[in-house]
Amino acid sequence: MSARNSLHASSSTATTTTTNFTGLGLDHQDLQGSSETELDVHRAASRTPPSRSSSKSRSRKAVPQFAYDTPPETNRDLPSIPPPSPLPSTALLTPPQPSSTQLPSTPTPGPSSSLQPKATPKTPQSNSISPLLSSALSTPASLTSLVPSQGEEQDAFHVRHTYAVLDTIGVRGDGYEEGVERTRARIGASRRSQLDAEAALGSGDEEKRKELGEEERKMLAGLDRYGFYSLPTHDRLVLLPSAPFLKRLSPSKPGPPLSPTSLSSLPPTPPITAKETSRIAKWTRMLIPRGRDEGGNADGWRVKGGKERKLWGRVYKGVPDRWRSAAWEMLVEGYAVAPAPGSLSVGGKDGGKDGLEREFRDALDRPSTYDVQIDLDVPRTISGHVMFKTRYGAGQRALFQVLHSFSQRCEVCGYVQGMGPIAATLLCYLSPSATYTALVRLHSAYSLHSIFAPGFPGLLEAIYVQEKLIETYMPAVYESFKNNMVGGTAYATKWYITLFANSVPFQMQLRVWDAFLVDGPDVLVVVAVGIVWAYRDHITSPNASFETILSLLSSFFVPEDEDAVINWIGKVLADKGIRDSMRGWRTSWGEMVRTGKDKDALL
């Protein structure tokens, strides 16, 4: 049993997230998967995605950390990748080369045909190829990885071929070993490199049944409650004081300037408290299965009759980790089929969930033009967590599959880097297919489409509403921003792009997401306004400057009291006047965009 499997066997709680999100700007090409960054292979044409593993391996939940730092691997400096060359003991890395004969994109063998299509190019033969690898390359599950699609570039084919085969046989030490890089850099030509690569391969089902070794047990003992080996570090840690959140959002004069409190390290992850245990019992009584599958397992959840009014308040008090998977699926589905934005249906309508899960599976068998970029981002999106620690481990493969399928859904958005931390957070609590479904809901019902679309129209709208709230309730702060030429896009872009994954501790991010899933995009705006509200005295200080303000608002914020912050957010959103104003400002922004008057509307 791997370290990851052991974690999920012993606990249903989820994870932690911290992001070091680099290279984020307002040019859509900086985020677009087809941008020319790091390698000259991002123009990959159509691809066939990684093969599907068994439902068991894809349905396991996980708990990742996201870090846009170079992972602790070899081959960190990556030049343009040359075409793969045959390596006798690493046939996994030498997929068949595209032949001159154009092949169908999704070949399907007939009932009596062999598993390899007739037009399949020859695979390099070697007496040293392992029987396990040879078997994996000839199984139906990996069939689509054996044949390049028409017009598919070699590097793109190499990526999906590698993920497909490893999804069948797995990798050794999943959860506690670093693993071996196979796609961003080729295995070296030396015999030692080839032997190391072969040794890192898993043994299929046998790998999953192995007992934990002593080394694994020691490492598991050091995990925090979310599955992290250690707390991430950040350059600028500042305390988000609780005192400002004890006052309601209203126009007020600035107080004496106070220097923000810097922190040297993140505080320890809080343990499960008696209050959380009590809330687990309340959620157990509040939610009931929407239905059951053939095995008797709950197939979705809904709020028990008569308790619908309690849902909103209990979400803002904090969804217990044990119930977060069920709650998130229910909230996303309820928001997606609600009669109006911002309202929630809890009656248990399906809303196309089954169809979206089929769409996810079908997309795995179709090529995507973003596989090379997705593969580049996967290992640097998440690290330091038992699920995502190992290169090509189950967590990294699941993330690749989700992003691969999702990149095909919207031709406008395609794939951008900001999707990685969002998908990884969802994978902390949901299966890959459910994560895909949630991403689709976020894209459409929660308006993330406009956040990721070229030009970032949704981002600019959110910042406009944010600045109008600041102008209305913190006029002195607005004037300071204006005088020091600090626009919202300078500090708030990463907040919206990653849904605050890179700005607050993981447990606080989860609380923000709980509120976001029940109340919609307005939550993100109010959280942004709340951060400015907490530091308004510093921002209006006579000594404030562009540098000091931007440095402060680019920090990693550690709440002194999470409950105080979340309660303040809930009270702001419960104010009908404020919500009406926010809706009005969104309408005004849309009209300005339509008439071309939006150019000078932002600071």
UniProtKB/TrEMBL annotation:
It holds the Pfam family RabGAP-TBC. Residues 9-19, 88-117 have a biased composition (Low complexity). InterPro entries: Rab-GAP-TBC_dom (IPR000195), Rab-GAP_TBC_sf (IPR035969), Rab_GAP_TBC_domain (IPR050302). Gene3D superfamilies: putative rabgap domain of human tbc1 domain family member 14 like domains (1.10.8.270), Ypt/Rab-GAP domain of gyp1p, domain 3 (1.10.472.80). Residues 1-135, 189-213, 251-278 are annotated as: Disordered. SUPFAM superfamilies: Ypt/Rab-GAP domain of gyp1p. Residues 318-520 form the Rab-GAP TBC domain. GO terms for molecular function: GTPase activator activity; small GTPase binding. PANTHER family: GTPASE ACTIVATING PROTEIN AND CENTROSOME-ASSOCIATED, ISOFORM B, RAB GTPASE-ACTIVATING PROTEIN 1-LIKE. This is Rab-GTPase-TBC domain-containing protein. It comes from Pterulicium gracile.
